[in-house]
Amino acid sequence: MDRPAAAHPATAREIILEIVRNMREGLEPLLDSTLAPSIYHVYLHSQDMDRLRGIVPRIEAEARRALDSELEKLNKASFAERLKAASKIGRRGEPKVEAPEGGWQIRLLENTDDDVDPGDIVIYSELAMPAKPEFGAGSMTKRIATRKMAGKESAAAPSYDQQPAPAAGPVETPTAAHPAAPVDGAFAVIEYEDKGGRKVFQMTKEQIVVGRGGRDYWTDLQLDTLPDVSREHFRLRRDAATGKFFLKDLSRLGTTINGEKAPSSLEIVEGEKRDLNVEAPVPDSARIGLADVVFLDFHSAAHG
């Protein structure tokens, strides 16, 4: 059944308000403080993105100021609660909401899903949770998804991704003949070498973004290398139903899989980039090249 069309296109003001709402939905209270999500990926219909593209930096800047203002309001309210609770033995007030140490990271992107209309706003945010070494656990990321579809607001239940704790003791450097083994819960392991030396990345999410990254470019696997590698070079996705892997090339200078060029998923229209959502299959064991500058040795957990 078709969804009713949104009453009007998404406005800059609505986008900012949705970012603030997502932040409120994603708050995580601790004992003495409350954490707020730091990373916000905002997905808009292509028509809304085309219309607003020229003022995207202004929207992102005003959204950061709106988040600061919302934190100030929340903390004024929580301060009043703390004063009220201070007079009652054994009770604590609401802990102060802290701004992210690295600031707010906000990025507006084109939504390539088929079931979205102009006016729809989908936001995914991320909050880095403190590690708990006393339980032998690694760090954890809390993810919140909020949607404003056909004018109706909704929020999904938060999801949590566990990052494995670092292994105790010395770690043997893997080689091509003896690749590193995926840790428990990892879908694949990626070995590579950049300016920072030889490294191993454990893929514990169904989808990751690989590239040089940057302030406005979120990456899961961030490479310290030449500008030939794009800030968001490719996305690697695992199909949960089949366990197979697929690569979407989003780069300027290309990506290869075992020496074969992957099809580009980008289309340039009047100087603007558009994601065509084109993917290439990745074998269980593959060498992935980024602009012939950096090479990643990929091994899925199924490969053994």
Could you walk me through the main structural features you see in this protein, from its secondary elements to its overall organization?
The chain has helices at 12-25, 46-52, 56-86, and strands spanning 28-29, 33-35, 39-44, 96-98, 105-110, 121-129, 140-149, 152-155, 159-162, 188-194, 197-203, 207-211, 221-222, 234-238, 245-249, 255-257, 260-261, 266-269, 272-275, 280-282, 285-290, 294-300. It has 304 residues and is an alpha+beta fold. It has two domains: 12-162, hypothetical protein PF0899 fold; 188-303, Tumour Suppressor Smad4 (Sandwich), CATH 2.60.200.20. The strands form five sheets. Strands 3, 5, 6, 7, 8 and 9 form a six-stranded mixed β-sheet that branches. The protein has a six-stranded antiparallel β-sheet with strand order 11-10-22-21-16-17, with no helix packed on it. Strand 21 (285-290) and strand 22 (294-300) form a beta hairpin. Helix 1 packs parallel to helix 3. It is globular and about 60 Å long. The model is unreliable at 1-6 and 166-177 (pLDDT under 50).
